[in-house]
Amino acid sequence: MASEPLFQWYEEYAEKENVRKDAIREVTKELEMIQRNMDRQLQQCHARKPTEMQDVYESVRSMFTDVKGLYARLADTLHGEEYYRYHGLWRQVTQNLVFMAALWTYLEQDRILQLEEFANLVGAKPQGEGFHVDLEDFLHGICSLPSELARLATNCVTMGDFVRPTRINAFVADVYNGFRLLNLKNDSLRKRFDSLKYDVKKTEGVIYDLSIRGLIPKE
Length: 219
Known about the structure:
It comes from Monosiga brevicollis. The protein is an all-alpha fold. The chain has 2 domains: 1-125, Translin, domain 1 (Methane Monooxygenase Hydroxylase, Chain G, domain 1, Up-down Bundle), CATH 1.20.58.190; 144-219, Translin, domain 2 (Methane Monooxygenase Hydroxylase, Chain G, domain 1, Up-down Bundle). Helices cover 73% and strands 0% of the residues. It has 9 helices and no strands. It has helices at residues 4-42, 54-77, 83-86, 91-109, 115-122, 135-143, 145-158, 164-180, 187-212.
């Protein structure tokens, strides 16, 4: 049959594709397990004082060492020019890991995570050719941070900490204003950005409640 070589070639091609995708999914599953463990660790910020979180930070730092090894495996599975061909297979877990790194950075150092820092954490390039951290993935992860911090501001009040919510409010507003400077074209990223104004309102609401009760310490 004249068409037999064509279908035989396609069968071999499809088999190679499935092998590669399965290898990527295997790494992705391991990354997801680590990310969930990080999340469980970092959620303790809602019930612990900042001075009681050092063991959590060390645990997260150790887990990112494992993440770096897995990203190296991911890079070895790909050729540089095939990055976006398979990018969808690890996009979500990367966004989640950016969020974990951003939350960890804020909790420990009271500042925002930089793209270059995250790239170094996972052993990838910050941008450009080859295996890198996609900028939109990074921004998606950062977009998740204000919501968690708005929740933290409320829980700080429950724990009797009336100072930290003011810093959280200023930080969340700063992140929101930073995103406002961007001309976002990505629809999903634009929707995530639009939700940030509700996080700003939540933290402002916490500050308002503290203010009318006279609970905000004077500097």
